[in-house]
């Protein structure tokens, strides 16, 4: 069992088919029509995505008698938040995780669904799958362009500057969050953080003006791709598909024979496709971060900023 600020996850056995599952029981209650409609939308979004091999399988959803929503999901062994705290990934491992999760985002965005909370804690692994994207709890259907999610439910350590301004959601935010996540699982902490301690809100906003440091353990080519994806300007980031292909084409160790790149089919034929911003070419060196985000404070739960590191 694992308990967090917003939900408790139980390990259980589904007797009808004899398999172990995870039951995520949310702490909130659905005591009004708006919350119930949002939960159903989130559940449908998660169910739609779970057919992808790198998205956690969702088996069922429901509401308890005391109005707590729950999801019955694939049971995984751990998260990359746990992994990075114990043994950060090397460049090849991080690249391979990035390819898988970027492809899951390609599928998600092509079906009109934005994740909006990509972070190490939401990338899980199991004996049979090296990386699966979990928790579409903040997912929003692209055609609805719901921008009502406030700071209280974000993870600022991996959020791009536009999310602090409540800009219209786009797939570019997921790209930023994935690149920040890949940087973190190699460095052991989020980008630009000097220590494991959570910075204040003012310090966090100042960090967007600072360059993203090189990683001694990662080739410059990989770091440049991640910087490209973490550009402060959403229109200057790659799409999820372009990020996946950039990572897929990285040859990180020229002395070792590389397998041929995996060929991915396009999923952009869906009528719900999220139109991505068009990026500029990847910069040859560290970009200058020059956008000043304006923070819009929103009513939040006490202790929210204690969760920035990724939980």
In CATH's first tier, which class of the largest domain applies?
A: Mainly Alpha
Number of strands: 10
Largest sheet composition = 5 strands, antiparallel
Rough outline: globular
**Helix and strand succession?**
EEEHEEEHHEEEEHHHHH
Q: What is the CATH topology classification name of the largest domain?
A: Transferase(Phosphotransferase), domain 1
- CATH architecture level-2 label of the largest domain: Orthogonal Bundle
**Mean of the pLDDT scores?**
77
Contiguous helical run count: 8
Give the termini distance in whole angstroms. Answer: 15 Å
Let me know the CATH homologous superfamily of the largest domain.
Transferase(Phosphotransferase) domain 1
Task: Output the radius of gyration.
Answer: 19 Å
Low-confidence stretches: 141-152, 254-311
Structural class assignment:
alpha+beta
Structurally, how many domains make up the residues? 2
The percent of residues in helical segments reads 25-40%
EC number: 2.7.11.1
Protein name: non-specific serine/threonine protein kinase
Keywords: ATP-binding, Kinase, Nucleotide-binding, Serine/threonine-protein kinase, Transferase
Biased composition (Polar residues): 264-273
């Amino acid at each position: 069992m694992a308990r967090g600020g917003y939900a408790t996850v139980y390990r259980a056995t589904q007797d009808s088919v004899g398999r172990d599952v995870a039951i995520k029981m949310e702490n909130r209650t659905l005591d009004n029509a708006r919350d119930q409609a949002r939960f159903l939308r989130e559940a449908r979004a998660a169910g739609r995505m779970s057919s992808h091999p790198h998205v956690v399988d969702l088996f069922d959803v429901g509401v308890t008698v005391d109005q707590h929503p729950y999801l019955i999901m694939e049971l995984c062994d751990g998260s990359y938040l746990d992994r990075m705290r114990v043994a950060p990934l090397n460049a090849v491992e991080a690249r391979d995780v990035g390819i898988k999760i970027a492809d899951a985002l390609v599928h998600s965005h092509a079906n009109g669904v934005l994740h909006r909370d990509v972070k190490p804690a939401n990338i899980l692994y199991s004996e049979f799958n090296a990386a699966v994207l979990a928790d579409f709890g903040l997912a929003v259907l692209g055609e609805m362009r719901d921008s009502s999610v406030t700071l209280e439910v974000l993870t600022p350590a991996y959020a791009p500057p536009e999310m602090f301004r409540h800009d219209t959601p786009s797939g570019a935010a997921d790209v930023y969050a994935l690149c920040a996540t890949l940087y973190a699982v190699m460095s052991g902490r989020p980008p630009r953080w000097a220590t494991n301690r959570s910075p204040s809100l003012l310090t966090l906003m100042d960090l967007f003006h600072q360059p993203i440091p090189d990683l001694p353990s990662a080739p410059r080519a990989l770091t440049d791709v991640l910087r490209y994806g973490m550009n402060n300007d959403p229109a200057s980031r790659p799409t999820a598909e372009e990020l996946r292909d950039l990572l897929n084409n990285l040859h990180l160790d020229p002395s070792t024979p590389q397998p041929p790149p995996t060929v991915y089919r396009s999923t952009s034929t869906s009528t719900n496709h999220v139109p991505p911003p068009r990026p500029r070419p990847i910069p040859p060196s560290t970009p200058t971060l020059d956008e000043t985000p304006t923070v819009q404070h929103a009513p939040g739960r006490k202790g929210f900023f204690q969760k920035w590191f990724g939980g």
